[in-house]
Specification:
The complex is a heterodimer of chains A (about 190) and B (about 325). Chain A is α+β, with helices and mostly antiparallel strands and about 190 residues long. Chain A has two domains: about 30 residues; about 130 residues, no CATH class. The longest helix of chain A has 29 residues. Chain A is elongated and about 100 Å long. Chain B is mainly beta. Chain B is elongated.
């Protein structure tokens, strides 16, 4: 009668270590393969949910924030009395500093033809405070809105802004998806 | 290290962690959020001199259909579009007619004889008082967005917000003309419609009035589209129109005064022919911030009916 071979404690620990290392190596390799071939997930703002609370400017781990104002040109009215550009109660519609709503003068206004103007965001100056987006939505078409810029965002595992967003407007989308821009998609209620 | 020291350190650490978690959680609760340092503040322009408020809200009628879209009033009847449905409501608020439309209505009007004109984006339809379709226009370009219609004699006028033009149709809904508000006068530009709504209406004197929201104006045109006169007021205060797209809706009182409805700082007010504000029907505090400007109509008694899109109800305002 053959006696069953028993492993010593040393052999058991050795084989367990080998097994564990192979498992860890396989896991890391698998994750690396998945990351290189699969979709990356990135953070985006749902502009239809945004309530312009100002936290994108104050809670991003980056300073200035990776959230910037973007302009959905298709929706813009190109008017000279832009609610996102001029402060409420402005004395006139000039580009004078005291008339500008943006605290960092990040919106550049360019004359097109009487009485139309184009509004362009200077990304380097924008801090993502949403002041212009709120003014544009209240009095205009909402063509100015916030968005998280992929090339600036460090893609934290848990977005610091998403944690404090009062309207649950920060969500993960596939990295292969384009930016969520107004005009390209609609809200649940069909609003463009 | 003694046992009591370890217990103390662990207890203090745990208490600190719990305190941080609780304070972070509480800071995000509604009402406990820190003030927004970048808030867009128009509160100073919301206040209205109480002497100007010469109307009071005397009724609210909750609508039993969702998605209100447009409202009109003629000869004792309210014409209401909700979803794809057109309803005619009598003076006792009973439903007299219900008709499913082929597309979502964007605007409507009716005349004393019960003819109903409905705008549905890029086409129009005329229905008789029984809701039977009498005429349908050809489908206009995809970009056309008719947001207001009016009847003047044998002609139908339709405001196209996207095209910044007014289309003229005959009663068979064949297009007979269009105009863009070009006056040839340097200080009065043609229609500037930055927003998604462009309104027109005909008063009891058969005068065609059209908004020019890009310059905060109400303009009077002849039937052929020639500018006759205008009133224009820009102000964030109650004495004018603000933002890029006001007034959004308007109608007339029996004596010809304008009843205007604004977005941004949502309010309804009465304006006389000079452009001066006579009274305030509904100040902004009666509406939820960030909602749409209510559509307005005036009934036979001179009461203002406001279609509150946010609360899905018709609100009735009577002069004090």
């Amino acid at each position: 009668m053959e006696r069953k071979k028993t492993k010593s404690r040393r052999e058991f620990i050795n084989s367990s270590m080998r097994f564990g290392m192979v498992l860890a190596l396989g896991g890391v390799g698998g994750l690396a393969f998945r990351k290189s071939t699969g979709d990356q997930w990135v953070w985006q703002v749902d502009p239809f949910k945004c309530s312009w609370c100002g936290r994108c400017a104050t809670h991003c781990v980056l300073n200035p924030s990776a959230v910037k104002c973007v302009h959905a040109y298709e929706l813009c009215g190109y008017c000279d009395l832009c609610g996102g550009y001029l402060i409420p109660g402005h004395s006139d519609r000039s580009t004078a500093a005291e008339n500008q709503l943006c605290p960092t003068a990040a919106i550049e206004r360019k004359f097109i033809e009487e009485p139309y103007y184009e509004y362009k965001i200077n990304e380097d100056l924008c801090i993502g405070c949403a002041k212009c987006a709120e003014g544009c939505s209240a009095f205009g078409n909402g063509s100015l809105h916030l968005q998280i810029m992929h090339h600036i965002c460090v893609n934290c595992n848990e977005c610091a802004i998403a944690r404090v967003c009062p309207s649950d407007a920060i969500k993960r989308v596939k990295g292969s998806d384009p930016y969520l821009m107004k005009g390209d998609f609609t809200a649940d209620g069909g609003e463009t | 290290m003694r046992k009591w020291a370890i217990i103390s350190i662990v207890t203090i650490s745990a208490a600190t962690i719990i305190a941080v978690i609780i304070s972070e959680h509480r800071s995000t609760l509604p009402g406990r959020r820190p003030a927004n340092p970048f808030a867009y503040d128009v509160d100073e322009f919301r206040s209205v001199d109480q002497e100007l408020i010469r109307w009071r809200e005397t009724g609210q009628v909750q609508l039993d259909r969702e998605a209100p879209r447009a409202m009109a009033y003629a000869a004792g009847k309210i014409y209401l579009a909700s979803g794809n449905e057109l309803q005619v409501i009598g003076s006792d608020w009973s439903r007299m007619l219900s008709k499913t439309l082929p597309a979502e209505p964007t605007c409507l009007t009716a005349d004393e004889d019960g003819w109903i004109v409905v705008g549905m984006g890029n086409r129009l339809a005329i229905l008789d008082s029984e809701g039977e379709t009498a005429a349908v226009s050809e489908t206009l370009t995809e970009e056309t967005n008719i947001t207001s219609v009016a009847i003047l004699g044998d002609q139908i006028y339709a405001a196209d917000a996207t095209g910044r033009r007014v289309l003229i149709f005959n009663r068979e809904l064949e297009q007979t003309g269009e105009f863009r508000g070009d006056s040839g006068v340097s200080e009065v530009h043609g229609f500037i419609v930055p927003g998604a709504h462009f309104a027109l209406a005909v008063n009891s004197e058969d005068e065609l009035w059209i908004t020019n929201p890009g310059i905060h104006a109400l303009q009077n045109y002849t039937a052929s589209g020639r500018l006759r006169s205008y009133i224009q007021r820009t102000s964030f205060g109650i004495d004018g129109f603000s933002g890029c797209c006001n007034p959004v809706h308007f109608t007339f009182l029996p004596d010809g005064k304008f009843v205007t409805s604004e977005k941004g700082i949502i309010r309804i007010k009465v304006i006389i022919g000079t452009g001066d504000v006579e009274s305030v029907v509904a100040p902004s505090e009666l509406f939820r911030e960030g909602t749409r400007a209510p559509a307005v109509a005036v009934d036979d008694n001179g009461n203002v009916l406001a279609l509150d899109f946010d609360r899905n109800m018709i609100r009735i305002f009577e002069p004090i």
